[in-house]
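for ur thesis appendix - Carboxymuconolactone decarboxylase family protein. copy paste whatever u need, i formatted it the way the template wanted (i think)
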Amino acid sequence: MRQNFLIRLFCLCLFPVFTMAQNTDNFRQPYPLGTKLPEASAKNFIGQAYIAPITVNRELNVPMSNVTFEPRCRNNWHYHKGGQILVASAGIGYYQEKGKPARRLYPGDIVEIAPDVIHWHGAAPDSWFAHVAVSCNPQTNEAVWLSPVGEKEYQEATSQAENVYAEANRVLEAREQAIVSIAAYTGKGDLAHLRQALVKGLESGMTVNEVNEVLIHAYAYCGFPRSLRAIQTFMQVIEERKSMGIKDVEGREASAIEDGGSRYERGRDILAEISGTSAAVPKAGYAVFAPTIERFLKEHLFADLFERDLLTYRERELATVSVLAGVGGVEPMAYGHMSICLHLGITPEQLTALLNIVEINLGKKSSDPLRDVLGQLTDKK
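the 3d part is after this line
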């Protein structure tokens, strides 16, 4: 009985319901969605927005509301006589002051808007967005609404922010840029935006098996749950494209391993090859403190995974650094793998391009810590 239960549980883990596109039911955010804007307010928006008051104690004199925007939704140009503070809480959005480039917003970003500064804010073209709006100086504050942000104006503003690094990023091939995006979103667990990255991977010429290999590789750095959820998302993308008459190339399987040596030795030698560090160097740190994990790393990660020839060592390391950027808080591991990247001939400019892509996809909170790591590595040279 217990065995049958475990088998059913395992199958549920592998084949749960497909990830659906974001909507009011599954857009994940820390505050309530609330209700659709009342007609008097909605006339100052293009697209659908929702509002939920957060503070109810008027004696505190700090009115705050959660505002949620559907993709492409934005408010008109306007200003606040007493100023405003925005705290981005979910999705990806934009803020633009009159005469300045638009700023792409990610969860945790804060925008301080001085009194009488003309601006607009709203969602990215391909993403839901939510922020907390804080009304400053409420006793005298008032919003003054101006002209709408037209489609052409909105498209130019958002495209400029999205493409700010486009020229510099050409040091990475289209396939490599796709790998970076796929791996970063997988590491972050951002399935909604992963869908678009998966499509770009296929459109860059990657086969289904090669894209799958990036998602399989990711599990070693962000865990089975995020890897499996990414694979399930890819399954849905493939089915949707098939329903539209798009036949994606499945591609070849990984070649059989012919080396007869032990998995530990094979993994040890691969690590020595890609890192440039002799396998004869005495073990230290975690390898001494927890020898079991060191054996798992050599046997499974650097043998079972890195030996699979659907991705090159270079591509695997680009994917690894991108996954780690998505995970966050693992700078020592990023330092090691960025060192491997440099040893494999990936240039600092190419690693900068990788971090540019991470910044556009996930925000500066994901890219900046690794920019510091790259700076440390290049300063050593």
